[in-house]
Amino acid sequence: MGVCSLGDWLNIIALTALAGNLTQGSGFQAQSLAVGGVFVAKMLPAILLGPIAGTVADRFDRRLTMVVADVVRFAVVLSIPLVGSYQWVLIAAFLVECVNLFWVPAKDATVPNLVPKEKLEEANQFNLLVTYGTAPVAAALFAVVSALTSMVTTAFPASGVQPTDLTLGINAVAYLASAVLIFTLRSIPKDHTRQASTASVLGQIVDGWRFVGGNRVVKGLIIGMLGAFAAGGAVVGVGKAYVSALHGGDAGYGAVFCAVFLGMGLGMFFGLRLLGGLSRRRMFGLSIIVAGLTLAAIALIHDLVIVVMLTVLLGACAGIAWIIGYTMIGLEVEDALRGRTFSFLQSMARVVLLVVVAVASGLAAVFGLHVLTIGGISYQFDGSNVVLLIAALLAVIVGLLAFRHMDDRRGIPIGVDLMAALKGEKFVPETEEQPRGFFVAFEGGEGSGKTTQSRLLAIWLRDQGFDVVQTREPGSTKVGMRLRAILLDATHQGLSARSETLLYAADRAEHVEKVIRPALQRGSTVVTDRYVDSSLAYQGAGRALDPEEVAQINSWATGGLVPDLTVLIDVPPSVGLRRMASPADRIEAEPLEFHERVRREFRALAAAAPDRYLVVDGTLAQAEVSRVIQDRVREILPDPVPHEAEAATGTIPAIRD
Ligand code: TYD
């Protein structure tokens, strides 16, 4: 995929540049139209052949389909510099795209067969990275090739080397390399060829489209993404002409292309992190609005360096919108409809791109070139500027619509939200009632003494005048007590790791809903003996389940409720287990290595978020452990400690466990 994507991007850059070069001297209009023509030729096949090509992937050996497609692409691309006419550029662009239509679904259908189910999402993210990540590589390659060939032609004017020819050569070799690579992947299954499905393809497509139209959020997302795409299409359609007007040449065009994708990468990976606390729905609309404003600036400022810098910002906004849209569709759309939603988005994106690119380059050509002279200062204004301004306006309107349509923080000014996000405050959806009390969890292995310490802390807090609810897991609710009996009964040896995890999570869901959340909402302080981390340590690390999955299940079970402080009482298992007097329950009876894994996981969790954890050495004297805990809790207590109770600080209640 990586090699092929690189080839695809080289193909786009080289062909649009070549179309411009081949029609050089025929005027601004003709050049704009020529570049637009290449895009039309590249988009047309998807619209004409899209649904049919998908079925080919389901009927024939996918590995061979891909290999044949690659060899054909290799031959067609190689022929372009050899023929060297604009007509052939168009035909070749059309042919390559037809072949792509067979290659892509064959690949898409193969990936789920090669990747384990639980890794599919990651694989899809990687797919996006590889698809778009190769674009800046291709653009940089093109810029380098252009610079090199211009050096060569200056030194040896007779050589006649063209950067576009060289780039197409590299492009062709990339396809050939892909053919060889895929040919060696003998593990690509072909079982599907035996059971060619007769299920109505048309019916399935219609179902998917109906769903997209009926879901408010998905509709908002798709309109936003398509709007952004339309704006992008306008840039693509007139980019080459605009860069030429700024005297950028091929290298300048490569730099602008590079800037778009550099920006997208920066936006996808750093933009989201920088504004991590902002509501995703607001960020989606906002990024499209900012993209529109940036585009307007690009259209008006006729300076290639500034345009390149603004283009990075434009790309970053597009990257943010794209990744949020993709992720939110992934979250909002159920599995069975997701594929069709994405394919709807992708085919609509092509239609939009086709129409916009064609209209944009046409419009730019019709408008032509104007020079405004106001008071001695002349300002060149051409069709590409007009198109970019229209696209900017479109992006701003679509962004505003998406923002208003999906806003989940109505009434709160966006500036306030942005400042908070920049300061690193976390966004809390308004539907979720904000708990007011203070929430402490105690964690640790067997015999660590956390039960005793959690009781001591509760007593100390009460002495300070706090209303404290002291509780534990598992078994603090009616249902929880029955779950606890199942979970800890030494005779239930047959319990599978997954059902064990779900039962602990069920107990916790009940605990949060019936005990913890109501108490926090009343303003009480809650001290719990064990919480989510126990499952991450015992079920995740101990039972060797996927920690991500255990975390997800628990985040769902608790509605995302996280303690303000987790006290980890750390004791080597050999010491802790020796302290246990009573007969072993089902989990205590596990071998020492199990408990070692549990301890390692607890410590890793604490190390990953030091501001939310306190790790105490449980082998210290009990009073010492209590003192360390109180010191830390005193620092972060939500309200000032009531004055009259201050005298009591430091007294350790005479309760021993
Ligand atoms: P408990 O009798 O409360 O023991 P402790 O005094 O050690 O807290 O039993 C809890 C047991 O359940 C303990 O061995 C750890 C295990 N456990 C899990 O495996 N996963 C969980 O999520 C929780 C809450 C407990």
From TrEMBL:
Q: What class of enzyme is it?
A: transferase
Q: Does the keyword Nucleus apply?
A: no
One BP term from GO: dTDP biosynthetic process
Q: Where is the signal peptide?
A: none
Which InterPro entries does its entry note?
A: MFS_dom (IPR020846), MFS_trans_sf (IPR036259), P-loop_NTPase (IPR027417), Thymidylate_kin-like_dom (IPR039430), Thymidylate_kin_CS (IPR018095), Thymidylate_kinase (IPR018094), TM_effector (IPR010290)
Q: Keyword Transport, does the record have it?
A: yes
- Annotated keywords: ATP-binding, Cell membrane, Kinase, Membrane, Nucleotide biosynthesis, Nucleotide-binding, Transferase, Transmembrane, Transmembrane helix, Transport
Specify where it is mainly localized: membrane
Q: How does it sit in the membrane?
A: Multi-pass membrane protein
The entry's cellular-component GO terms read: plasma membrane
Family matches, as PROSITE patterns? MFS (PS50850), THYMIDYLATE_KINASE (PS01331)
The GO molecular function terms of this record are: ATP binding; dTMP kinase activity; transmembrane transporter activity
The record's EC number reads 2.7.4.9
Major facilitator superfamily (MFS) profile domain: residues covered? 1-410
User: Catalyzes what?
Assistant: dTMP + ATP = dTDP + ADP
Q: Where are the transmembrane segments?
A: 33-52, 64-82, 88-106, 126-148, 168-185, 220-239, 251-272, 284-301, 307-331, 351-374, 386-403
Which amino acids does the record list as binding ATP? G444, G445, E446, G447, S448, G449, K450, T451
Pfam families assigned = MFS_3 (PF05977), Thymidylate_kin (PF02223)
Q: Where is it located?
A: Cell membrane
Family designation: Belongs to the thymidylate kinase family.
Function per UniProt: Phosphorylation of dTMP to form dTDP in both de novo and salvage pathways of dTTP synthesis.
Q: By what name is this protein known?
A: Thymidylate kinase
Q: Organism, per UniProt?
A: Planotetraspora kaengkrachanensis
